[in-house]
Amino acid sequence: MRRLYDLPFLVILMGIGALAMFLPVGVALAERDWLTARSFFYSGLLFSVLAAVLGLATIGNRVTNQARSHLLAMLGFYGLMPLMLAVPFVEAVPDARYLDGYFEMISSLTTTGATLYDDPATLSSGLHLWRALVGWLGGFFIWVTAISILAPMNLGGFEVTAGPGGARQLGAAGPGTGRAADPRGRLLRFARRFAPIYLGLTASLWVLMLLAGEGPLVAACHAMSVLATSGISPVGGVPGGQSGFAGELFLWGFFIFAFTRQSFMLDLRPESWRALSTDMELRMGVVIAWAVTLFLFSRHWLGAYEGGADDSGLAALRALWGAVFTVTSFLTTTGFVSADWAEAQTWSGLATPGLILVGLAVFGGGVATTAGGVKLLRIYALYKHGVREMEKLIHPSSVGGAGAFARRIRREGAQIAFVFFMLFALSVAVTMVALGAAGIGFDAAMVLTVAALTTTGPLAAATTEPALSYATLGDGARMVLAAAMVVGRLETLAIIALLNPEFWRN
To answer: Which residue intervals of 260-311 are DSSP H helices?
Structure first.
């Protein structure tokens, strides 16, 4: 462990990615898919040796600014690791270009889930498992680095509550001494802490999906996709599976881990459960999800009433469930669509409310979770600030209470949340202009931009009629979207921190 601690962060990540290449080999051998098995086996051997050589060459190298080094490693993880992960994918897919494989891997690693292969039958089972596995590893990377790297630097949403008591409120690493106080120590500590939880939750959901009647491969991919909010599916989504309503119910229950980090940072003490019930991100997410669900259900009900639809009782319940599942899925930036979502449209005769799903993806999930978007904590800060400003309009001399932490949320927290929201809007504008220059129309550019920046790849197919296809895009548009995925996953504040001259001074 001591020697592993001395390795550069990016070399460790490279070694993990190389070892992961051996997992699809077993699936490919079971199906006698010799091409896929050879591609992943040889690639795993090659990159394992390369990672070992790089580790021997760089072990013990001293880094003067470890925080800067690890933030650069995060950027390199999303930008450079797909270059390695794409090699077995390209070798196993006939007629696939390397640029296609790079786009697939950067989409999976950032938990976006956008794919160039609209027909799932185009890819073998081993390749589907590889896409879901890469997304799952990318989700675990977010869990660990958000707490161990971004939280001490007040980035990734933690800046909203930065200040006295802020680290305790967020469950971030507090001050310490020795190895545990530096980024390397925090990475190893939180990786050891979160790995059993992340693996256990995924395995639990996989078993539940099997009990619901889902196939082993589909159950594994959907379980990994929900925990990582990647929306990757080997059957084209939840409706293509065999688990039915029970499977959707199990998937829906695990969306809570994308609402708030407190859901997977709990211990067995009663006060931890009470803290979860009062968690501001969870409460904000539940309010948004149910408010939008009731609005969509009312919309479908009125459409069915005006159209004179029959069997409105059962169809209404199916429409309600379809709205509940789909709204929660897009709010957590997973992008799975319920099988009853299309039934609700058929029942009411109304078109897909695509703009509402786009707005939900922009809201996003919780801080330090695998969800993308603006994040619920920032939305909460802006909401509390707005409520306080309306109170002052009625009672100009009133004093806002609820303690110092709540006051900071309403003041400094709301200010930095607004700054981030403006940076997010600027990122949307720049990406849309770049896609326009690549020949993409305004409507398609807007949907694709939001899908990339919020890491919600299935948004493109679920919000437009006819559905947008990434396969029809040119190479320039794909690279613009790939860059947008990295920006959306790493967030603009972290990238701006890398451009700060003070950050580079020892």
So the answer is: 270-277, 280-307
Question: CB–CB of 61/496 below 8 Å?
Answer: no
**Under 8 Å CB-to-CB from 258, ≥6 apart: which residues?**
229, 332, 333, 334, 365, 366, 369, 370, 371
Decide: residue 192, CB within 10 A, 0-12 exposed, 13-18 middle, 19+ buried.
exposed
- Answer whether 221's CB lies under 8 Å from 124's CB: no
Distance CA 5, CA 10 (A): 12
- Residue-wise pLDDT for 192-241, tens only, equals 999 999 999 999 999 999 999 999 999 999 999 999 999 999 999 999 99
| In the predicted structure, residue 40 carries a pLDDT above the cut 80 | yes
Q: Are 373 and 365 in contact (CB under 8 A)?
A: yes
Confidence of residue 176 (pLDDT cuts 50, 70, 90): very low
Label residue 340 by pLDDT band (50, 70, 90). confident
Residue of 110, 111, 132, 106 lying closest to 120 (CA atoms) = 132
| Phi, psi values for residue 364, rounded to 5° | 75, -170
Which of these, 376, 387, 384, lies nearest to 406 by C-alpha position? 384
Neighbour-count burial of 345, counting CB atoms closer than 10 A to its CB (0-12 exposed, 13-18 middle, 19+ buried): middle
CB-count burial class (<10 Å; 0-12, 13-18, 19+) for 412: middle
DSSP secondary structure letter of residue 254: G
Q: At which residue do the structure tokens 């078993």 appear?
A: 207
Pairwise pLDDT comparison (361 vs 177), residue with the higher score = 361
DSSP 122: G
Tell whether the model's pLDDT for residue 469 goes beyond 80: yes
The answer to whether 182 touches 190, Cβ cutoff 8 Å, is no
**Backbone phi and psi for residue 456, each to the nearest 5 degrees, phi listed first:** -125, 75
Per residue in 277-305, pLDDT (tens digit) is 788 899 999 999 999 998 888 876 776 66
| Cβ contact 427:487 at 8 Å | yes
Alpha carbons 160 and 57: distance in angstroms, whole number: 40
Residue 156, φ and ψ in degrees, nearest 5: 70, 20
Tokens representing 57 are 């060459």
Distance CA 463, CA 431 (A): 19
CA gap 60, 157 in Å, rounded: 32
